[in-house]
């Protein structure tokens, strides 16, 4: 344990980020609140204090230097214009931020000129319009933006889209390229000096991502086919090759990306590997 002050971390208290953020911190070995009414929680074993805050406010606290690290959405960080930087992608709450208009209207970005655009991300959108030289009227709403056109308050909406179900239900169609592609990110204040415990937290979060995205693979292979199989699955730091009791055979252990793991098993089998096993990683430190 370090003698540094407690590391202060902002965790989303509600919405799409809250549950997966707490789950990721738990998977990294930290304590998390068990009562949704708790505003803070101290994990003294790790020298960390968690603050449960609205996701939209997190970049503000970090940018002003009142908290050390925070979990928020990239789109929210950009919209806040806070003096904070994204330091790690966390792999959940993936979304795109897109324009939509009534179904069948076949609008283009150029058609936005002079229109009323409803959004709950006004500064993100203002930045986009500035870059593109578009003049449009921003209508700031808190949520349920998809209803703004039907209710007559806007001609176009710009909103978070995941599956597209909400837009479809509102009879809207997407147009243009995404204004932003978002996911949950770990943020810190620009050029902040953090307690030493921050490095430990980052290492643990990175390790959770590896554990989530990789499998451990074991297989046996004879000497003739060893090199071919090693080339197919080179691993992260290189495979471990040990001698098998059966003469002329090796046992190989290697980390493989979860995505495509079954295809890789087929390829390794064709290349001579046998007894191929895939195992979940409970945790790791790389
Ligand atoms: N349906 C979704 N699927 C994936 N990510 C989403 C979804 N909705 C929102 N997000 C992402 O999660 C983050 C927080 O959005 P969320 O909707 O939880 O906040 P909010 O709108 O301020 O809160 P609330 O909806 O509770 O008022 C944003 O980065 C956003 O892109
Ligand atoms: O593409 P989908 O999978 O349908 O998800 C996108 C919807 O999810 C979010 O809504 P949320 O529930 O956060 O409500 P809000 O609009 O009030 O923020 C977002 O604002 C969209 O409305
Ligand atoms: Mg929302």
From TrEMBL:
<keyword id="KW-0460">Magnesium</keyword>
<dbReference type="Pfam" id="PF08029">
    <property type="entry name" value="HisG_C"/>
</dbReference>
<dbReference type="GO" id="GO:0000105">
    <property type="term" value="P:L-histidine biosynthetic process"/>
</dbReference>
<keyword id="KW-0479">Metal-binding</keyword>
<comment type="pathway">
    <text>Amino-acid biosynthesis; L-histidine biosynthesis; L-histidine from 5-phospho-alpha-D-ribose 1-diphosphate: step 1/9.</text>
</comment>
<dbReference type="GO" id="GO:0000287">
    <property type="term" value="F:magnesium ion binding"/>
</dbReference>
<keyword id="KW-0328">Glycosyltransferase</keyword>
<comment type="similarity">
    <text>Belongs to the ATP phosphoribosyltransferase family. Long subfamily.</text>
</comment>
<keyword id="KW-0028">Amino-acid biosynthesis</keyword>
<keyword id="KW-0808">Transferase</keyword>
<dbReference type="GO" id="GO:0003879">
    <property type="term" value="F:ATP phosphoribosyltransferase activity"/>
</dbReference>
<dbReference type="GO" id="GO:0005737">
    <property type="term" value="C:cytoplasm"/>
</dbReference>
<dbReference type="InterPro" id="IPR011322">
    <property type="entry name" value="N-reg_PII-like_a/b"/>
</dbReference>
<keyword id="KW-0368">Histidine biosynthesis</keyword>
<protein>
    <recommendedName>
        <fullName>ATP phosphoribosyltransferase</fullName>
        <ecNumber>2.4.2.17</ecNumber>
    </recommendedName>
</protein>
<keyword id="KW-0963">Cytoplasm</keyword>
<dbReference type="GO" id="GO:0005524">
    <property type="term" value="F:ATP binding"/>
</dbReference>
<dbReference type="InterPro" id="IPR020621">
    <property type="entry name" value="ATP-PRT_HisG_long"/>
</dbReference>
<dbReference type="InterPro" id="IPR013115">
    <property type="entry name" value="HisG_C"/>
</dbReference>
<dbReference type="InterPro" id="IPR001348">
    <property type="entry name" value="ATP_PRibTrfase_HisG"/>
</dbReference>
<comment type="function">
    <text>Catalyzes the condensation of ATP and 5-phosphoribose 1-diphosphate to form N'-(5'-phosphoribosyl)-ATP (PR-ATP). Has a crucial role in the pathway because the rate of histidine biosynthesis seems to be controlled primarily by regulation of HisG enzymatic activity.</text>
</comment>
<dbReference type="InterPro" id="IPR013820">
    <property type="entry name" value="ATP_PRibTrfase_cat"/>
</dbReference>
<dbReference type="Pfam" id="PF01634">
    <property type="entry name" value="HisG"/>
</dbReference>
<keyword id="KW-0067">ATP-binding</keyword>
<dbReference type="InterPro" id="IPR015867">
    <property type="entry name" value="N-reg_PII/ATP_PRibTrfase_C"/>
</dbReference>
<dbReference type="InterPro" id="IPR018198">
    <property type="entry name" value="ATP_PRibTrfase_CS"/>
</dbReference>
<keyword id="KW-0547">Nucleotide-binding</keyword>
């Amino acid at each position: 344990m370090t003698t540094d002050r407690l590391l202060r971390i902002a965790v989303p208290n509600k919405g799409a980020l809250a549950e997966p953020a707490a789950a990721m911190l738990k998977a990294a070995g930290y304590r998390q609140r068990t009562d949704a009414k708790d505003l803070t929680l101290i994990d003294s074993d790790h020298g960390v204090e968690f603050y449960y805050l609205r996701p939209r406010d997190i970049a503000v606290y970090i940018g002003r230097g009142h908290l050390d690290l925070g979990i928020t959405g990239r789109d929210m960080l950009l919209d806040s214009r806070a003096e904070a930087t994204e330091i790690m992608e966390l792999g959940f709450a993936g979304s795109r931020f897109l324009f939509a208009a009534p179904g069948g209207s076949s609008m283009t970005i150029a058609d936005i000129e002079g229109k009323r655009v409803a959004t709950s991300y006004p500064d993100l959108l203002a930045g986009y319009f500035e870059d593109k030289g578009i003049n449009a009227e921003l209508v700031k709403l808190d949520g349920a933006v998809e209803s703004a056109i039907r209710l007559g308050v806007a001609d176009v909406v710009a909103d978070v889209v995941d599956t597209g179900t909400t837009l479809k239900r509102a009879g809207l169609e997407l147009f243009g390229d995404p204004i932003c592609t978002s996911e949950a990110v770990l943020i810190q204040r620009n050029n902040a000096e953090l307690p030493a415990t921050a490095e430990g937290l980052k290492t643990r979060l990175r390790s959770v991502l590896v554990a989530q995205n990789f499998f451990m693979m074991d297989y046996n292979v004879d000497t003739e086919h060893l090199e071919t199989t090693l080339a197919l699955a080179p691993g992260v730091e290189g495979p471990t090759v040990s001698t098998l009791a059966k003469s002329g055979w090796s046992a190989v252990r290697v980390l493989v990306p979860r995505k495509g793991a079954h295809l890789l098993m087929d390829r390794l089998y064709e290349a001579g590997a046998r007894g191929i096993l895939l195992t979940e990683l409970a945790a790791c430190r790389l």
